[in-house]
Amino acid sequence: MSRTVLITGASAGIGAALARTYAAQGWNLILTARREGPLQALADELTAAHPLTATVIPEDLSDPAAPERLVAAVTARGLTIDGLVNNAGFSRVTGFLATDLTAHRAMIQVMLTAPIELSRLLLPGMVERGFGRVLNVASLAGQMPATGGDTLYGPIKSFLIKASQGLHLETRGTGVHVTVLNPGYTLTEFHDVNGSRDQVSKAYPAWMWMDAARVARIGYDACEANRPSVTPGVMNNVMGGLARFLPDSMALNMVANHAKRLDRI
Q1: 253/2 Cα distance (integer angstroms)
Q2: Which residues contact 125 (CB under 8 A, 6 or more apart)?
Q3: Does the active-site annotation cover 153?
Q4: Of 70, 86, 162, 223, which one has the greatest count of Cβ atoms within 10 A?
Q5: How far is CA 76 from CA 84, 184, 195, 262, in A?
C-alpha cells in the first residue's frame, strides 16, 4: 500500500534530503515551502527517479492561517496524509534586541506553533486509521543551554523536543510513531540564509559537520523504529550529554564563548 508524507520546508537542505529519503522508500510526497520553483524542481527530480506522485503546495507557515489552509488544500485534492515531517525553520543571529518583532513572531509561528497545529490537525486521522508517522526536526541546540544572538532558536527547539516526547508517549500502541530528530551542524543552505556561514566554517572543523542525506536517513530510520528521539553523530551525542550534567554556570559560559567565536554578541 502506497503511503503519502507531507514535508514542510522541503525546498532545500534537510527538508529536501528527507523528501529524497522518503521517495527512495516508496512514499508519495506532498511538498510545501514558500518557494514554488525549488519545490517543483524537486518534485520533477523525484518523480523521474521513482514511481511515485509528488504534489507541490506552496505555503508560508509564518501566516497563522497556513496550517489549516494547507490541510484544506490537501483534502481538496483527495489526498490522505500518512506521514508528517515538520522541518520548516530558520534563525536570526543578529541578537534579540536588534531583530524586528515581526521576525520573532515568524520564528515562533513557523517552528513552534505550525508544527503543533499540523500535528493536532493530522494525528486524529492517523490514530483512527491505525498508521501514522510524525518526524519533527528540532536541533542539537534544543539540548544545549540557550545562546545569545540567536536567542529564541534553542528554546523553540527545546519546546519541540519535549512536545514530541509527549506525543510519542500519547500515541503508543496506536500504530502512530512520533520521533524528534536533533541534527547538529549539517551541510545545508541554513547558515547561508542566516548569514553565519563564514563564522561557523571558521569556528568548527570539518569533522563536526554531517551530510544532510545522512541526517535525513538517520531520522527516517529512527521514526520507522518508533524511537522517541535521535541525535545524529557521536560528537553531537557527547555534547548533548555533557550539557545535561554540567553546572548551569559552566554550561552558560561554554555557550557564551561559542557565541563570541561566531561574533553573535
Answers
A1: 50
A2: 80, 81, 132
A3: yes
A4: 86
A5: 18, 37, 38, 46
Q: Residues 205, 185: contact at Cβ < 8 Å? A: no
Return the H-helix or E-strand segment holding 17.
helix 13-24
- Condensed to tens digits (0 to 9), the pLDDT of residues 83-92 reads 999 999 987 8
- Residue recorded with cell 523528501: 19
pLDDT in tens, 144-179: 777 777 889 999 999 999 999 999 999 999 999 999
Report the alpha-carbon distance of residue 7 to residue 169 in Å, rounded: 23
In whole angstroms, what is the distance from residue 177 CA to residue 165 CA? 11
Residue position matching grid coordinates 561574533: 263
Q: Is 71 exposed, middle or buried (0-12, 13-18, 19+ CB in 10 A)?
A: middle
List the catalytic residue out of 153, 185, 204, 220. 153
Burial 178-205 (b: 16+ CB within 10 A, else e): bbbbbbbbbbbebbeebebeeebeeeee
Query: In terms of pLDDT, which residue wins out, 96 or 40?
Result: 40
Nearest to 244 by CA among 179, 167, 158: 158
CA distance 252 to 248: 6
In angstroms, the CA 196 to CA 261 distance is 11
Angle at the Cα of 117 from the Cα atoms of 47 and 88, rounded to 5 degrees? 45
Helix (H, G, I), strand (E, B) or coil at 213: helix
DSSP 140: G
Cα Rg of the chain (Å, integer): 18
| Of 251, 260, 255, 206, nearest in space to 233 by CA | 206
Burial 11-20 (b: 16+ CB within 10 A, else e): bbbbbbbbbb
3-state secondary structure of 135: strand
pTM value? 0.86
